[in-house]
Amino acid sequence: MNEITVPKIMKSKNISKITVVTAYDYTMARLVDQCNIDIILVGDSLGMVTLGYADTLPVDMRDMLHHTKAVVRGTSNALVVADMPFMSYQTSVGKAVFNAGRFLKEAGAGAVKVEGGSVILPQIESMVQTGIPVMGHLGLNPQQIAVMGGYKVQGRGKAGDLLLSQALELEKAGCFSIVLEAVPPSLAEKITSRLRIPTIGIGAGPHCDGQVLVINDILGITEGFRPKFVKTYANLATEIKKAVSSYSAEVRDSVFPGPDHCYKD
Ligand code: KIV
Prior knowledge:
The protein is of the alpha/beta class. It has a single domain (6-235), classed as Alpha-Beta Barrel (TIM Barrel). Helix content is 39%, strand content 14%. It has 11 helices and 8 strands. Strands 1-2-3-4-5-6-7-8 form an 8-stranded parallel beta barrel, surrounded by 5 helices. Helix 8 runs parallel beside helix 9 (185-194). The longest helix has 17 residues, at 236-252. The radius of gyration is 20 Å and the shape is globular. The N and C termini lie far apart (48 Å). 41% of the residues are buried. 3-methyl-2-oxobutanoic acid (KIV) binds at residues 22, 41, 43-45, 83, 179, 181, 202, 212, 214.
C-alpha cells in the first residue's frame, strides 16, 4: 500500500491543502511521486492528452486499466485514483461495481473517480459498501460534453443550489472527496464549507481543500487551447522541440554519435 491513503486524505481537510496531479505512464508517475504530491489521478483526460482523441468519450476500460497499471508501477507515495471511463458505470450498479473493482484488483489503484450527481448514487453506495473508495466529480463533467454542448462554467446562479445538494448527496453516499470542476469560486467555497469530506478544485478558485491540474498543462507540453484556470510552470514543448531538433541536426551532420558515445574496440 502506498504512503498516502484514503483516510489520510480525508483527515487533511482543514489541516493541509491536498495536491493532485494527473499522470498516465510509469515514467511521469515516478517523477511526480517524488514531488510531494498527495494524489496521482489517472484521468480519462488521457483520451486527449495521450491518445489524441477529441474528448474523453472514446476512452474505455482497456485504456484506463493499461495506463493505471503503468502509473501504479511508478508510484510508492501518492494515492493513485483511476478515472472510470464513460459507459463503464452509468448503465447498472452491477457493472459499475465490477468495473470499479477491476481498478483495485487488477491495476492496483487505491480508489476510483466517477462523474455525476444523483443519477449515479446507487452505484457509488454499492462501490463504497463493496470496499472501493470513490472520489466524486461535479460541475463540469467532461463525459457529459454531448448534452452540455461545450466546456462551460457550471453552477452560476440558481444552478449552484443544485450542485450543493448533489455534493451533499455524494458525501452521504460515501464519497471520500469530490472534484469540483469549472465552478465559480464563491460556490466552491460554499460547498467546501458545507462538506465534511475534502473538495479538490480545477477551475474552482482557491477555497477548495485541494487542487488538481493535468500534468501536461503544468509542464507546458500541451499545444493549442489552454483553459483560463491552467497555470504552466515550465515550457517543455519548446524544450522538447529544441532537444529533438538538435539531435536530428547532429545525426544529419554526422556529429552524433561522437567518440564519447561509442564503445572502445
Ligand atoms: O480526467 C481528468 O484529468 C480529470 C481531472 C482534470 C479532474 O478528471
